[in-house]
Write a structure and sequence with these properties.
CATH class of the largest domain: Alpha Beta
Largest sheet: 7 strands, mixed
Shape: globular
Structural class: alpha/beta
Distance between the termini: 53 Å
Number of strands: 12
Low-confidence stretches: none
CATH topology of the largest domain: Aspartate Aminotransferase, domain 2
Number of domains: 2
CATH architecture of the largest domain: 3-Layer(aba) Sandwich
Order of helices and strands: HEHHHEHEHEHEHEHHEEHHHEHEEHEH
CATH superfamily of the largest domain: Type I PLP-dependent aspartate aminotransferase-like (Major domain)
Number of helices: 16
Strand order of the largest sheet: 2-8-7-6-5-3-4
Mean pLDDT: 94
């Protein structure tokens, strides 16, 4: 049969995971899965939270509302926007990737930009949807590039969007909030649509974080979020999109109906309880505290033993769940550590980059040290 080929290839990260699982089965030896993008320091303890959910309720057993449970959307409004937004601006989606995909489909764009080191799915999603993509060196230089472009344009200004991930995947670095917000404001004023995709931020912040409230004031800005990282709920496939643009929200509502016909009701009820109940808030707080504690220790261990690819951290430091190490994917695998070569996260294919790997540092600290001890000794 004839098909419409997108040109996108299957995820290398998924392929690497399958390869490591096969090696484990063949050797019977344990491997450390640092190739994955999930928090694995500990699981969130849902025991007390599950008791709050009535599985026999109509809310669980029938189709959920198209844009999501109103109670959940209001809870998100309170948690992220201090109640200053509105449920009509929020739509529940089945995970962060589908959120980005929905946004790219809806917007009428000439090109989407993202940072030099980027999550590979950004590029693949753009390719599948037939949207051109490119990268920028840093946010400051990108702002200047757009300024120069806008000055040169007389008619038909280029329709531009930029995807911002902070803390970054794969580097794990965190921009200064004030500087980042200033750049975002300038970009939106130049009619650049900013897609703020930050699924790792709330692992390190709580409801006192005011950045989302400040973003709320800007036009041409869309927020895509996921509960996979902040609550350890990757398996539930749930996130949200926030926009104050009515035309965008109307089209999103239609597309959500025909793409998903509602997001898993149990996942929605679960997140609602995690955001609003005392038991849920404690479960989230405990999960974050332990996860951040071990993530921090693991990064400190890499830094102390000169295993970080320091070139990427000259003007910042890694704080997210990912870091880049100066060890190849093959060398790590020989030491039973899964990783993903940095060549999969950039268009820069230099030998220097080929000698580095992205690892997820969100694993138990003692296990992390156990696997890296041999490499540390060799370095």
């Amino acid at each position: 049969m004839e098909i419409n080929k997108s040109g996108a290839t299957f995820s290398s990260i998924v392929g690497i995971g399958a390869k490591i699982k096969k090696m484990m089965e063949e050797t019977g030896e344990e491997y450390l899965f640092l190739n994955r993008g999930i928090n694995a320091v500990c699981s969130i303890n849902l025991t007390e939270v599950i008791r709050l959910i009535d599985f026999n309720s109509a809310g669980i057993q029938v189709y959920p509302p198209n844009k999501g449970l109103p109670e959940l959307r209001e809870a998100i409004n309170q948690e992220y926007f201090d109640g200053k937004s509105h449920v009509d601006n929020i739509a529940i989606v089945p995970g962060g990737m589908s959120a980005i995909d929905s946004v790219v489909q809806i917007l009428d764009l000439d090109i989407v930009y993202f940072s030099k080191y980027f999550w590979g799915s950004y590029q693949k999603l753009c390719m599948i949807r037939g949207v051109e993509s490119s990268t920028f060196e840093n946010l400051k230089s990108f702002v200047q590039t757009v300024k120069d472009l806008r000055k040169s344009e007389t008619t038909n200004p280029k329709k531009i969007a930029v995807l911002l991930c902070d803390p970054n995947n794969p580097v794990g670095n965190k921009l200064d909030d004030v500087e980042m917000l200033n750049h975002i404001k300038v970009l939106t004023e130049m009619d650049v649509i900013v897609i703020f995709d930050s699924p790792y931020r709330r692992l390190f912040y709580d409801s006192n974080d005011i950045l989302y409230q400040e973003l709320l004031q800007l036009k041409n800005l869309i927020i895509t979020e996921s509960f996979s990282k902040t609550m350890g709920l990757s398996g539930q496939r749930i996130g949200f999109i926030h926009s104050t643009d009515k035309a965008f929200n109307d089209e999103l509502n239609v597309r959500l109906l025909y793409a998903f016909n509602g997001v898993n009701a149990f996942a929605q009820e679960l997140v609602l309880k995690l955001l609003t109940s005392p038991e849920g808030k404690k479960a989230v707080s405990d999960f974050k505290k332990k996860t951040v504690e071990d993530v921090t220790k693991n990064i400190q261990y890499l830094n102390k033993n000169n295993l970080l690819f320091n070139k990427l951290y000259e003007h910042t430091k890694p704080v997210g769940i990912f870091t880049v190490v100066n060890i190849t994917e093959d060398e790590l695998l020989k030491n039973k550590i899964g990783s993903v070569g940095m060549v999969y996260f950039t268009n820069d294919k230099t030998e220097e980059i080929r000698a580095t790997s992205r690892i997820c540092v969100s694993v138990p600290h003692e296990k992390f040290k156990l696997f890296f001890y041999k490499i540390r000794s060799v370095k």
